[in-house]
């Protein structure tokens, strides 16, 4: 009798405790979330750190702007979590994730990544273009909240959906990375899942730092996105529509699946005072999913289909010659390099011709200034950071990481548009200027 009443007291205490805990959780609803992004000096990949599991474990994940969802290595024996749940076949989670298959695992006993009666996804390593199949699962995820100026308290999502993968899928990623953080256009990519978990707008922003020693920032939720000294980087953005590529660009996919990547409508390109002549057919996405322009964080430099590459570099070379900038021998992986001797320096980088990506009308263009076009390869040589994509790449223009650095990109998924700032150096700030000193 005495024992059972003691148990009752304990039970009541536990009940009260968990009720308080869940109330506290509910009463704090963040307006936005923030995470830091570091550029790895050897792979040039952008890496973030997210805490997952119970107890929480910080994981380094490679940021994949167009990635379908978050995937992590579950084969690693260090995956230990009391809150790991595989998604049962035909559950609501499987349909939300549009999980392609349903299966069982032959190993015994069950472990994270290997459970019976679980639906499967096709996680891909978009750096190496390799895919596998992996169990759909959920676990606790923790990120910092923010008021737009500094990080606030940590917030958790109790059942964040992701895919498991085998350890081999990590090959080609930055050392120490445990998976990839997909920010693409699906219902279970980080932006949509976080927006649903905290009932905020389906908006997120990416601001990559150009330095490997200072952190850039990704925000989930609406602005302000404040950078020191007191600049709201979302205040003066130019918007362009996002296009859906009807054919998946992932390494493996099921028939009829659209691409989760972000495509924009580049209609023309100008270099300095020249309009570059381009084959317009290459600029639109055809029925097979070929052509068009996408934005990618897994490609370190912009890649252009060969005829576009040839035309753009020819214009850049002639415009540079007119400025007495001397061309020098190529330096791998670049083809077009110059002596930096006659190159002035401006607030927006080396003084070279601007490259404008012309969008929906003549007043809407994304300007690539010297800070985003020229890559320093030695003391006195700078190269144009664009690569030749060969004769028939799937996507004609892939805007790569170097061209995104110190630019703010704000994705508004409900309105299907992306806002871009062009170089933040014009506004005397950079993506490394978010104040990561916590205010809580
Ligand atoms: C899955 O089911 C099969 C067949 O019933 C069984 O042999 C196997 O041990 C189970 N695996 C797990 C991980 O539960
Ligand atoms: C333009 O590109 C399309 C698609 O690759 C190709 O079929 C066509 O022949 C090209 N046109 C010219 C004039 O090169
Ligand atoms: C380029 O050099 C030539 C010859 O030295 C000079 O006449 C011209 O003004 C220079 N142009 C520019 C843009 O500096
Ligand atoms: C950064 O944020 C912290 C915490 O809110 C604050 O104390 C500090 O003054 C801020 N730094 C700058 C340079 O504004």
From TrEMBL:
Pfam name, any one: TAXi_C
The keyword tRNA processing is assigned to this record: no
Coiled coil: none
GO CC, alphabetical: extracellular region
Keywords: Secreted, Signal
Domain Peptidase A1 as annotated: residue spans: 46-421
Keyword Hydrolase: no
Signal peptide: 1-24
Domain of life assignment: Eukaryota
One of the protein's GO biological processes: proteolysis
Subcellular location: Secreted, Extracellular space
GO MF entry, a single one: aspartic-type endopeptidase activity
Record family assignment: Belongs to the peptidase A1 family.
Name this polypeptide is given: Peptidase A1 domain-containing protein
Species the sequence originates in: Trapa natans
Highest classification ranks of the organism: Eukaryota, Viridiplantae, Streptophyta, Embryophyta, Tracheophyta
């Amino acid at each position: 009798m005495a024992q059972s009443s003691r148990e009752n007291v304990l039970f009541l205490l536990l009940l009260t405790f968990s009720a308080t805990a869940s109330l506290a959780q509910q009463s704090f609803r963040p307006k936005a979330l923030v995470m830091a992004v570091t550029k790895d000096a050897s792979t040039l990949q952008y890496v973030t750190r997210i805490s997952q599991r119970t107890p929480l474990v910080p994981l380094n994940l490679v940021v994949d702007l167009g990635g379908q969802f978050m995937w992590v290595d579950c084969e690693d024996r260090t995956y230990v979590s009391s809150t790991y749940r595989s998604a049962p076949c035909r559950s609501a989670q499987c349909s939300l994730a549009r999980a392609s298959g349903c299966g069982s695992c032959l190993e015994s006993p069950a472990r994270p990544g290997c459970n019976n009666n679980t639906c499967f996804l096709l996680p891909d390593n978009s750096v190496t273009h390799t895919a596998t199949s992996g169990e759909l699962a959920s676990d606790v995820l923790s990120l910092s909240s923010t008021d737009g100026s500094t990080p606030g308290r940590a917030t958790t999502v109790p059942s964040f959906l992701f895919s498991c993968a085998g350890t081999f899928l990590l090959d080609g990623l930055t050392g120490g990375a445990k998976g990839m953080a997909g920010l693409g256009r699906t219902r279970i990519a980080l932006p949509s899942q976080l927006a649903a978990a905290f009932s905020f707008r389906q908006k997120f922003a990416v601001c990559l730092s150009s330095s490997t020693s200072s952190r850039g920032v990704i925000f989930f939720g609406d602005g302000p996105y404040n950078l020191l000294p007191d600049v709201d980087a979302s205040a003066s953005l130019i918007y362009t529509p996002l296009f859906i590529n009807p054919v998946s660009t992932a390494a493996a996919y099921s028939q009829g699946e659209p691409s989760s990547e972000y495509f924009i409508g580049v209609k023309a390109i100008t270099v300095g005072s020249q309009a570059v002549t381009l084959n317009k057919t290459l600029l639109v996405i055809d029925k097979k999913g070929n052509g068009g322009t996408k934005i990618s964080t897994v490609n370190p430099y912009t890649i252009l289909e060969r005829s576009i590459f040839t035309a753009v570099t020819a214009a850049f070379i002639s415009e540079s010659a007119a400025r007495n900038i001397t061309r020098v021998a190529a330096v791998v992986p670049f083809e077009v390099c110059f002596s930096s001797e006659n190159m002035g320096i401006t607030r927006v980088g080396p003084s070279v011709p601007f490259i404008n990506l012309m969008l929906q009308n003549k007043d809407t263009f994304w300007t690539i200034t010297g800070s985003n076009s020229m890559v320093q390869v030695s003391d006195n040589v700078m190269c144009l950071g664009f690569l030749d994509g060969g004769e028939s790449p799937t996507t004609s223009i892939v805007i790569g990481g170097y061209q995104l650095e110190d630019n703010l990109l704000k994705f508004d998924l409900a309105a299907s548009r992306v806002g871009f700032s062009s170089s933040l150096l014009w506004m005397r700030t950079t993506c490394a200027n978010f104040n990561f000193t916590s205010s809580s």
